[in-house]
Amino acid sequence: MEKSITKLKLLKLWEMLCQETDEDNPMPSTTIIKRLAEIGIPCDRRTLYKDIEALRENGYEVECNRSRQNEYYVLERNFEPTELHILIDAVQAASFITEEKTKDLVNRIATLSGDRKAEVLKSNAVAFNIVKNTNKMIYYSVNEIITAIDKKKKIEFFYFDYDVSHQKVYRKDKRKYIVNPYATIFSNDSYYLLCYDDKHEGMSHYRIDRMDTVRITDEPITKRPELKTFNVKKHKKQVFNMFAGEDTTVTIRIDKCLIDAMYDKFGPTLKMKMISDQEAEFTTDVQISSAFIGWCISFGDKLKVLSPTKVVEKIKESIEEIKKMYN
Q1: Which residues contact 217 (CB under 8 A, 6 or more apart)?
Q2: Spatial distance between the Cα atoms of 112 and 116, rounded to a whole number of angstroms
Q3: Which residue has the higher pLDDT, 100 or 294?
Q4: Beta strand pairing status for 211-220 and 153-162?
Q5: Residue 32 pLDDT more than 80?
C-alpha cells in the first residue's frame, strides 16, 4: 500500500508542477504539501525533497529556487509558447475544421503550455475571418483514410457537390468511388485525399469534406511500381488548386515583381535567370489544367508562357472565350 501511495504521490506531484508552474510562477514547498494533503496524500518537507530528487533521477526536470522555503517549477516542455501559438493560428485559419472542433483544439493545444500560460495563449489567439466547414464527419473520414493507408487497403465512398440551396448532390448518381488511398494533402484552405484510381490509371484528388460514408474495404491496394518513386511534394508543386492534368515542361517569363510569388509556388530550388533589368525566365514542370491556365491569366501582363506552343494556344483560346463572354 505504501509503495502505491508513493507512486501516486510522484504522479500527482509531476502533474501539479507541469500544469500550474513555470519560471515565472514557481510553487512553494508549503503549497505543494498542502495541495497533496487535500487529496489524501501525506507529505512533509523532507519527503518532498526526496520525491523531487526521485523525479529528477528518472529524467523529469524540476527546477528549484532555493530559499528558506524552496520553490519548484517545470521549465522544459515539449513545445515552446511561440510554437504553440503558431499551431493555434494554423487551426484557426483552417477552413476545413468546424467551429466546434476549432475551439476544442485551441483549448487542448493551449493546455500543453501549462495552466498558467494557457489563458494567455488563448487570449492572444486571432479569430480569423474564415468560413468554417460544417461537415462534422470529416474527422471520421480522415481516420478511415489514414487507417486504410496503414493497412494498405482500398477505400470506398460517395462524393458530392452542393446545389444553390446548399443541398448535397451526389456524383455518379450516388454510385460508390473505390480508390487506392495514398496520402492526405492540405492545399488552398482545403484538405484533400491523394489516391490512385485503377479505372483511370492515374492519381486523383478528392476534397475530404465532400466525401461521404468513407469505409475501408477488404480489398488490398493495387501495387503500382510508379508509386514507389512518387514524390508528393513535387506533385503538389505541379498541380494547381488540386486540378490534375497532363505533365508538361513549360518556360515562363515574368516581371521581376513576381519573383517572390514564383518561389512561393514552386519552391526555393526553382532556377530563374534575369534576361533584362525588369524580366526573368524559368522552366519548370507543371500539370496543364484549367486551373493552371487561370493562374497564368491572373497575373495579366506580368506573366507570359513562352513554350510549349500547345500551352500558349490554350491560354490564347481561354482569353478569347473570356472576351466573348463580356462582349
Answers
A1: 153, 154, 155, 156, 178
A2: 10
A3: 294
A4: antiparallel
A5: yes
Output the pLDDT for position 242.
Answer: 62
What single-letter amino acid sits at 146?
A: I
Distance of CA 46 to the CA centre of its chain: 48
In 3D space, the residue among 74, 231, 219, 87 whose CA is nearest the CA of residue 153 turns out to be 219
* Helix, strand or coil, per DSSP, at residue 136: coil
* Three cell numbers, residue 82: 511561440
Q: At CA 319, angle to CA 314 and CA 325, rounded to 5?
A: 125
Residues belonging to the chain: 327
> Taking residues 310-323, what's their average pLDDT?
94
User: What SS3 class is residue 203?
Assistant: strand
Q: Which of 74, 80, 78, 75 is nearest to 13 (CA)?
A: 74
Per-residue model confidence (pLDDT) at position 1: 37
The Cα 96–Cα 91 span in angstroms is: 9
Percent of the chain having pLDDT more than 70? Answer: 85
Domains and CATH numbers, the chain: 2-73 (1.10.10.10), 81-124 (no CATH), 138-230 (2.30.30), 246-326 (3.30.70)
Backbone φ, ψ for residue 239 (5° rounding): -90, 155
H/E segment holding residue 320: helix 309-326
